[in-house]
Structure formats: structure tokens, C-alpha cells
């Protein structure tokens, strides 16, 4: 009986009979994706009504009166709101994270309830409760030091603290237990070991997500409009919306968006660099 022999496929060729190696198929697939992307972009550009885009989104005449206040007032206030809320969120988040890790059950319960509440409620609702609910419950809070800045710091800070607490807790738990055991063997108290050894190491681990939280807070500062602000306390989104209404044109909103990008793009780049550095360190 005659036997058939199967000759091996030539080197670099697919045994399936297509005559293409996996690398060649990958190149063809990638080229097809590039072509599809270019086609979609060309179709979108061709279908857009550039006359209306220029009239309602890119009309520089609609920006009359916005500058330099867009940068010197609105952007400055946005940064101040963000920085104040971040400081409150970080300090409170660190405390809540330590409570979540505490051996005292009521502390753990309080930390868990805090996180669940302020992660579950919308930031807009919390700002309203802080601005209008707290003065009802505590009349002394009707006119707090710092005014709107304090209200925003507390409102957005509570939201940020709930997220930062979980991030910091994960960072603390990522530190090897041997670090604490070594510190205690040297005679350090638990508190001293946490402050001097564990927390600094944990914060280095969670710097990228904490920086990302700063970006999110910067965007959440756009919610400040709900509590009412004066012309000197206005932030980017409110200024863009006000001018867009006055001019019956959306170009001021585009300008406000670009002002946000002045801060968020560098922060995003910083987050990526920090993450890359951590990967290399491992």
C-alpha cells in the first residue's frame, strides 16, 4: 500500500495553506485597521458642517470680555477649589484608611459606613447638603471662614476622602508585614512604626492613583455653580456657560474646556510617568 508523506511547510509560511506567516497576517490586519481609521476620519470631516462649527464653536468674537478673567479669575478659582478639596480629602482619607485597618471594631465600622455613604452619593448632592443643609443643622456654619471656598473644600473633600481612603488602605496592605514586625522588634510602638515606616512606603505605592484623584477633583470643581458664586468666586464651567448664554454661542464653553486641559493634560502625563517609574522599580 502506497503511503503519503506530508512535507513540512516552508519556513515562515503558515501550515494552513494561506501562504502567509502569522507576522504577515498581523501586518495586513494592522494596515486594514489604519485604512479603516483614516476612512472614518475623512468621512467625519467631510460630513461636518464647518460653517456652523466656526459660527457656533470657534467664533473668537464670542470671547470678547472673557480674557484675561478666564485665566486670572476662573482658572485660579478652579485650582483653589481643587487644592482645598484635595487637602481635606487626603487628610481625612488617611484617617479613614487607618480606621478601616484598626483593631477596634467601632472604628472599622465607622470607616466602612463613611466610605459607602460618600462613594454612593453624587458629589453634586453632597455639595448641596454642605452648603444648605449644614447651616440648618449648625447655624454657626451659615457663614464659615473662607465662605464658598470652605464649603467646596468640605463638600468635595468628603467625596475625595472616601475614594482616597480605599486607595491608601490598599497601599498600606501592600507593604510587607515583615516591615511592621521588624520595626516592632526594634522597640518601636505600633503608631511610631506606622508613621515612620509603613505609611511613607504605602504613599509611594499609591502616588499615581492619588494624582489621578486630583485630576478627577479638578473636573468635579465644575459643580460649584450649584451653591451660587459671585463674580470673584466663579470657576471655569460657570464662566463658560454664562458667556455662552450671553453671546448665544458655544465658543466660550470650548474656551473653558481648553482651560481645563491646561491643567489636566500635564497631570495626566505626570500620572503616566509615575506609573512607568513604579513598573521599572519592580
Automatic annotation (TrEMBL):
Residues 75-271 form the ABC transmembrane type-1 domain. Coiled coil: none annotated. Keywords: Amino-acid transport, Cell membrane, Membrane, Transmembrane, Transmembrane helix, Transport. CDD domains: TM_PBP2. PROSITE patterns: ABC_TM1 (PS50928). Pfam families: BPD_transp_1 (PF00528). This is Amino acid ABC transporter permease.
Amino acid at each position: 500500500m502506497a503511503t503519503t508523506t506530508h512535507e513540512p511547510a516552508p519556513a515562515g509560511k503558515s501550515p494552513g495553506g494561506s501562504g502567509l506567516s502569522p507576522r504577515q497576517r498581523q501586518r495586513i490586519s494592522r494596515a486594514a485597521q489604519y485604512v479603516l481609521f483614516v476612512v472614518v476620519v475623512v468621512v467625519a470631516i467631510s460630513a461636518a458642517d464647518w460653517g456652523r462649527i466656526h459660527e457656533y464653536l470657534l467664533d473668537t468674537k464670542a470671547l470678547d470680555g472673557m480674557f484675561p478673567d478666564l485665566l486670572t479669575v476662573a482658572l485660579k478659582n478652579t485650582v483653589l477649589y481643587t487644592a482645598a478639596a484635595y487637602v481635606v480629602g487626603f487628610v481625612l482619607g488617611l484617617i479613614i484608611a487607618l480606621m478601616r485597618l484598626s483593631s477596634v471594631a467601632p472604628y472599622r465600622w465607622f470607616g466602612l459606613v463613611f466610605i459607602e455613604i460618600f462613594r454612593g452619593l453624587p458629589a453634586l448632592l453632597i455639595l448641596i447638603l454642605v452648603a444648605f443643609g449644614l447651616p440648618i443643622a449648625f447655624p454657626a456654619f451659615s457663614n464659615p471662614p473662607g465662605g464658598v471656598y470652605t464649603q467646596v473644600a468640605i463638600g468635595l473633600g468628603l467625596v475625595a476622602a472616601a475614594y482616597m481612603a480605599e486607595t491608601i488602605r490598599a497601599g498600606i496592605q501592600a507593604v510587607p508585614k515583615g516591615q511592621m514586625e521588624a520595626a516592632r522588634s526594634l522597640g518601636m510602638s505600633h503608631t511610631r512604626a506606622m508613621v515612620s515606616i509603613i505609611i511613607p512606603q504605602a504613599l509611594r505605592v499609591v502616588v499615581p492613583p492619588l494624582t489621578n484623584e486630583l485630576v478627577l477633583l479638578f473636573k468635579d470643581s465644575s459643580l460649584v455653580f450649584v451653591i451660587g458664586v459671585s463674580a470673584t468666586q466663579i470657576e471655569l464651567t460657570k464662566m463658560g456657560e454664562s458667556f455662552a448664554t450671553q453671546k448665544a454661542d458655544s465658543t466660550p464653553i470650548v474656551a473653558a474646556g481648553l482651560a481645563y486641559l491646561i491643567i489636566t493634560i500635564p497631570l495626566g502625563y505626570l500620572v503616566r510617568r509615575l506609573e512607568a517609574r513604579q513598573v521599572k522599580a519592580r
